[in-house]
Specification:
Number of helices: 4
Family: Belongs to the purine/pyrimidine phosphoribosyltransferase family.
InterPro entries: HGPRT, Hxn_phspho_trans, PRTase-like, PRTase_dom
Keywords: Cytoplasm, Glycosyltransferase, Magnesium, Metal-binding, Nucleotide-binding, Purine salvage, Transferase
Organism: Anaeromonas frigoriresistens
CATH architecture: 3-Layer(aba) Sandwich
Oligomer: single chain
CATH topology: Rossmann fold
Protein name: Hypoxanthine phosphoribosyltransferase
Distance between the termini: 16 Å
Largest sheet: 6 strands, mixed
Order of helices and strands: EHEHEEEHEEEEH
Structural class: alpha/beta
Shape: globular
CATH class: Alpha Beta
């Protein structure tokens, strides 16, 4: 797998430090409150598990599986909910944890759905933000890293379900996803 990576963009130490800072900021912002963390499967699992270790307030976790990519390198724009939440979010503080925001189409759709369920608040925490790829305006409260418009893998991010287990974020060589 490592030979398929053109460049390591964010190393393990950088990831660890940023996730710790995000957890501390979230803890401070929600001090005295509880929080429901919604992990967007599958890409955000590694990020979410490390993030919640650094959140020092009461939390619940839940999962959603939402797809707009399939095995493509760009969003189709058609969002499909594969797995919905297990519990009600009415009256709760919600933090959506995402691996990367690219076009913003998936999260924009997801925000509308979740807000219609009457939570107390809904915010987004994304490890990566790729503003060059944005198709919709979005407010993201917590962002780990601003990244270039490249195809990224590792630390949960995949191409055709591969590379998720890399401990860093890397840029995938073009010949891998163009072939």
């Amino acid at each position: 797998m490592k030979e398929d990576i053109r460049e390591v963009l964010i190393n393990e130490e950088q990831l660890k430090n940023k996730v710790m800072k995000l957890g501390k900021q979230i803890s401070k912002d929600y001090e005295g409150e509880s929080l429901t963390v919604i992990c967007i499967l599958k890409g955000a699992v590694m990020f979410m598990t490390e993030l919640i270790k650094n959140i020092e307030i009461p939390i619940e976790i839940d999962f959603m599986d939402v797809s707009s990519y399939g095995n493509q390198t760009t969003s189709s724009g058609v969002v499909k909910i594969i797995k919905d939440l297990d519990s009600s979010i009415e009256g709760k503080n919600i933090l959506i944890v995402e691996d990367i925001i690219d076009s913003g189409l998936t999260l924009n759709y997801l925000m509308k759905i979740l807000k219609s369920r009457s939570p107390k608040s809904v915010e987004i925490c994304s490890l990566l933000d790729k503003p060059e790829g944005r198709n919709v305006d979005m407010e993201v409260k917590y962002v780990g890293f601003i990244v270039p418009d490249a195809f990224l893998v590792g630390y949960g991010l995949d191409f055709a379900e591969k590379y998720r287990n890399l401990p860093y974020i890397g840029i995938l060589k073009e010949e891998i996803y163009l072939s």
